[in-house]
Every structure is written in structure tokens, then in C-alpha cells.
Design a protein that fits this description.
3 domains, 12-stranded mixed β-sheet, Acetylcholine Binding Protein, Chain: A, about 450 residues, about 40% helix, rod-shaped
Length: about 450
Amino acid sequence: MRILDQVLILIAVPVIFAQQQQTGPHIVNSPTALFQARATGSAQLDPCQYMLTLLNETSHDLMQHETNTLEQCLYYFLAGESAKKLAKLNIPHPIATIPPNYLSQQPVTVNFAQFTLQHFELNEHLKDISIHGYLELNWHDDRLLWDENTWKKNKLTIHSFHHVWVPVLGSQNPENHLKNGDAFEVRKVETTNQGNVTAKVAFSLRTFCDDTDFENYPNDVYKCCFAFEPQQDREVIQFTSSGLPIFTDPKNFRDYGWGVSGTVPESFDDPSEVAQLGFCLNLKRAHSSLKIELTIPLFISTVIFLLPPLFGSVKIQIFLKMFVMLLQFLTLLMFSTRIAPFLSSTSSTPRPMRFLEIALVINLTSITVSIFIFTCMKVKRTLPPWGKATQAANIVNSLMGILNISSVEEEYNLDKLEEQESTSTYHKDWVNVFRAAHAVIMAILSLLMIFTYIVLCF
């Protein structure tokens, strides 16, 4: 019996060897760990050979598990071909561990096709921002080429980004990006039979924003810039951009009362430096309620400041201007309380507070001038005013008839001191001169207030 067994073995070995020499697609380094079962057909093909034969002999579509098996077979075929080409380098799994064009050392162009912003968190106290989203990359890898007619597939989904080479990205400051919480995660990798690889990378980045525009509060703009660098294979990677601006995800994005606009990502091409690509986000406040809260008090205090000259008597104007100063001071306190949390981290003064500062100075100047002129009007003089001054006062009082209210003062006894006419016939002339001077100065201060309001509040 032992002699018979030996004879059968000698006959079986050539038969098996002949079956392995059959023509047709051959899978190098097939995943035997994944495909333990062998085909039961007469050809005794392994699963990969069986799937290829099934594709060529039948016209029906493959089921899902058959498609997954075929994709795995295709990947291991490509990995085996790459291992054969680089066998002399003795590099394990070269299709995933070394970049394309490793032998030629030609640059690998990584194109940033699209940026999509999903969420952001702005800290106005520290002037920093965290953004979350994803970006789409594409590059060419000539190791991922296959015959579409043989495999009946023009796309291949890579189920794990560890199976192929992908660029490893980081922030511009690699020594700090881990401390800042920056993170990149490759979520989806696909390739075509022409070797064109696309990847979707989720990112989470943090940076500090430029706060020099805080003087335009509440219309200030935060400018927050980001930059990418390759963390591995720096010497063979270069970046390009598709020229598209930053997009926002319509499903997940929330603006939180901010108008968000992004610049077009640009690459910094310098052969002597590491490849970089940067972009900026501009965040402008869109809080309509905040604008109303800050605009209405300024408008009301400005209008009330313009009203006292219409009341005629200089004494009444002084009291009204003091009331306006109280309103301006309370508004300043309210603004300071509203903006105080943001003032500690900036050297700029917001325009509403700058306007209140100037308005208080103008109002104080107006009150001082009114009190001085009111005091001068009470002094009795025996000499007439300069003739040209009298003529100029008459012209001013005639042009500003609403301000020439001496008759109104006498009728309603608004100022008892001015009712006591001096025995001198020149006292009334002096009063008219001072009233005209007061009207001109108040008109100048009113125009200055209006100009300041238009410049700082619009």
C-alpha cells in the first residue's frame, strides 16, 4: 500500500502544477487570510481568479459581497505589482509606506480641490477661533493603474487609508498644532483606473484672529488665517489650489449671528521652503439687535443736542445741554458695561465710544460758551458796541430769525435779569450782539456734532 500511495502522489503533483499554469489573469500575493475557501469548480481557482472568470463569462451584475471581494482582489493585485517593482529596496508594503515617484524623486502635486466649513467657535475674549470641516484632496499615483477591461471597474474605494499613500497634513507651526488641538482625519479615499486619487479629509483647526478692526465695533471684522504644511515626505510634496473659495455646509453650518466669508486658498510656491497653503476667514457681526442697541442712544442724544437753540433763551439752553450731557454720560456707562469684556484684549477704542467721547467734549464746550455769553449779557454797559458788530448781529439775527427771540423772552418773562432794561440805550444792542455770537457758535458746534456722528456712526 505504501508503494501505491507514493505512485499516486507522483501522478497528482504534475496535474496540480499543470492546472496552475493555466492562462488567464493571475493575482499576485492574493489575500489567503481573507479567502480560505477554494472554488469547487473543475478549474479549482482561488476566489480572485473565480471572480475574474465570473466577470468574463457572465453578464449579470455582481452582488454586494462579490463586489467587495473583487475590490479586495484588485487592491492586493496592485499592492503585489508595486512590491515586485520595488523588491530591490526591501521596503515593506511600498504602496502605502512611500510616496509616488519615490525612485524619480519628482514632486507629488497635491491639489486642494474644495474647502467646506461645517462649524466654528469664536472666543471674543481671547480673540481665537476653532473651525471644523472637511477638504477634498486629489493627486496622481501611477502605482494605482489597472486594466478596466479585465477588472470591469473604473473606480476603487480604499476602505482604510493605511492601505495606500496619503499626504499627512499639519498646521503651519508643527511644534504647536498638537497643543492647539489641531487634528486631521482621512475619511474616504477613492482612486480611478488612471491612478487619480481623491481623499476627503476632516479637519479641526485653531488660530488667533486679528483684532485691529475692533474700532469699528459693532461692525468689526475678525480676520483669522490658517496655513497647512506636509508633516511627512516634505521634500517631494507641492501644493496647488483649485481657485475655489471657502464653502459652508448648508446642512450643518450655523453662523451664530456672524457673516462668514473666506478668501481663496493660495499655495506659497518656494522650492527652497516647505510647501504651504493658506486661507483666511473673515467674520463680521450680523447682530441686528446689537446694532439697534448701540445706534438708538447715540441718535437720540445727538438730536436732543441740536434742539436747545430752538428754545431761545440762553439760560434754558444751558439747562437742556446739561440734561443732554447726563444722557451722554449714562450712554457711555452703558456702552462701557456692554463692551468691557472685550476691551481687555485690544488697544483699539470702538467708534461708538469714540463718538461719545467727542460728543461730551463738544457739549461741554457748548455749555461753557453759553454760560460765558449769558454772563456777558448781564453786564450793563454805557458805551455802544462797535458799529460793524451791530450790523453783523442784525444780519445774523435776521437770517436766523428763530434764534432772535428777544421779544419772546420779554413776553414770557423767561429771563428776569434781561427784563430789567438799563437806563442806557446801548444795553439792548449789546444783548443782540451776544445773542448773534451765541447763535453762530452754536451753529458751528451743531455742524461739528453732525459731522462727527456721520463719520463715526455710519
